[in-house]
Design goal:
EC 3.5.1.3, seven-stranded mixed β-sheet, C-N_Hydrolase_sf, omega-amidase activity, single chain, Nitrilase/N-carbamoyl-D-aminoacid amidohydrolase, 7 helices
């Protein structure tokens, strides 16, 4: 099946971002994409100073638009992180997924909050304003089961391993790595998660805006279960397409059967919730 990643140019105007995102979703659907993914923070600038201002309930106005366009196009739509989610006085970095009937299939709240300090380069602390999610998120399609993470979640290999154990063949990470971590780790982490678990990994970023307070790396990417980059964007707004070949995935798992050769008598990873 065909997967499309929408690397959107994000502005400070929520309605413009949402309208442009829906236009590109329709374009991707018209070109045959069955699963379409939007980036992290596609409907608000990325930054702790913006999260309260742009926050909405889920379901809410923005997710209603995503629901409508998913139903209109008859696709599976991974809604990036449309807006910070407000729930019971707390804010979450949340990705909602919609089915071809417009129903919400999954709602992933970012599990690992991005609190880092790289002296002289970047400091950021999501936990100043956001609360962490407390569950992993998967959804089924007629093609395969899909596991979800958001940005910093990709650094935690155990999460991807559990998705693999639960039968996921595609992992999707809306993300917004920056100009420090992007060139160093963006592709490396995707290739690592893909080859370790023999799954497809797709990471979808906003386009780069050098005038923004937080500058995203861009370079939305899809990696196959052999660890090969099979589609990659530059820094500008674009839509990239790739075929997710589950026959190839099965062949790789047969050739190097790591899933059946794990020494579960010596070690193991488990999901607690």
């Amino acid at each position: 099946f065909q997967l499309a990643l929408i690397q959107l140019q994000v502005s400070t105007i929520k309605s413009d971002n949402l309208q442009r995102a829906c236009e590109l979703v329709r374009e991707a659907s018209a070109k045959g994409a069955k699963v379409v993914a939007l980036p992290e923070c596609f409907n608000s600038p990325y930054g702790t100073q913006y999260f309260k201002e742009y926050a909405e309930k889920i379901p809410g106005a923005s997710t209603q638009k995503l629901s409508e366009v998913a139903k209109e196009c008859g696709i599976y739509l991974v809604g990036g992180r449309s807006i910070p989610e407000e729930d019971s006085g707390k804010l979450y970095n949340t990705c909602a997924v919609f089915g071809p009937d417009g129903a919400i299939l999954a709602k992933h709240r970012k599990v690992h909050l991005f609190d880092i300090n790289i002296p002289g380069k970047i400091q950021f602390k999501e936990s100043e304003i956001l609360s962490p999610g407390n569950s992993l998120s998967m959804f089924d399609t007629p093609y395969c089961k899909v596991g979800l993470g958001i940005c910093y979640d990709i650094r935690f290999a155990e999460m991807a391993q559990i998705y693999g154990q639960k039968g996921c063949q595609l992992l999707i990470y809306p993300g917004a790595f920056n100009l420090t971590t992007g060139p160093a780790h963006w592709e490396l982490l995707q290739r690592g998660r893909a080859v370790d678990n023999q799954v497809y990994v797709a990471a979808v970023s906003p386009a780069r805006d050098k005038k923004a307070s937080y500058v995203a790396w861009g370079h939305s990417t899809v990696v196959n279960p052999w660890g090969e980059v099979i589609a990659k964007a530059g820094a500008e707004e674009t839509v990239i397409y790739t075929e997710i070949d589950l026959k190839k995935l099965a062949e790789i798992r047969q050739q190097i059967p790591i899933l059946s050769q794990k020494r579960c008598d010596l070690y193991g990873i488990e999901m607690k919730k």
